[in-house]
Amino acid sequence: QVHLVQSGAEVKKPGASVKVSCKTSGYTFTNYAIQWVRQAPGQGLQWMGWINTGDGHTKYSQNFQGRVTFTRDTSATTVYMEMSSLRDDDSAVFFCARGSVTLDYWGQGTLVTVSS
Amino acid sequence: ELMLTQSPGTLSLSPGERATLSCRASQSVNSRYLGWYQQKPGQAPRLLIFAASSRATGIPDRFSGSGSGTDFTLTISRLEPEDFAVYYCQQYGNSLYTFGQGTKLEIK
């Protein structure tokens, strides 16, 4: 059974960085890309980018280019999303999701709160 | 940059009624790369439809997708109480992904 389990909620100060993990199980890790999606409070879904879990290649949305980094640990079947220079308006729920075209399995989401 | 516009923003219907949700793209989309998702409060989105018209595993047959080019539709034939949620369309093209802004389906 496929599972994506994300790390717990974080509270950060403006200017700090946050690293969210997405632990996968139940399938061959390197066969599927992992996408990251942000959802601000009361807002819609915003695609951030994806990582090819096979070769580590990444693609970032222009909205996040330069401020986010995706990495993966194939031995741990885990993907990481790190966002730097956090601002108040970065407070959101971050989701990881499996897929290269449509996203068939999702993590439960990680709430990141940015507050001074 | 390709944009997806969903309409209506909010749809108020009663259980048992038919729901028709629209997703319009600013340029032509490959149907194989068009999906629909359902999201309930406090939950992650759930894939309903992939490749514009194929139901994902475990999705009831009251959900159907159709369309091509720039116009796509999600239809729920007879609304059940658990279907009231927010629905998003999503497309993939040129290594980029886009979501529509969502349609909220609420109980009338």
Structural notes for this entry:
Chain A is globular. Chain A has no helices and eleven strands. Chain A has 116 residues and is mainly beta. In chain A, β7 (68-73) and β8 (78-83) form a beta hairpin. The model of chain A has no long low-confidence stretch (mean pLDDT 96). In chain A, the strands form two sheets. In chain A, strands 2, 4, 5, 6, 9, 10 and 11 form a seven-stranded mixed sheet that branches. Chain A has strands spanning 3-6, 10-12, 18-25, 34-39, 46-51, 58-60, 68-73, 78-83, 92-98, 105-106, 110-114. By secondary structure, chain B is mainly β. Chain B is built from no helices and ten strands. Chain B has strands at residues 4-7, 10-13, 19-29, 34-39, 46-50, 54-55, 63-76, 86-93, 96-99, 103-107. In chain B, the strands form two sheets. In chain B, strands 2, 4, 5, 6, 8, 9 and 10 form a seven-stranded mixed sheet that branches. In chain B, strands 1-3-7 form a three-stranded antiparallel sheet, with no helix packed on it. In chain B, β8 and β9 (96-99) form a beta hairpin. The N and C termini of chain B lie far apart (36 Å). The model of chain B has no long low-confidence stretch (mean pLDDT 96). Chain A binds chain B through residues 35, 37, 44-47, 50, 59, 61, 95, 97, 100-104, 106-109, and chain B through 32-33, 35, 37, 39, 44-47, 50-51, 56-57, 86, 88, 90, 92, 95-102.
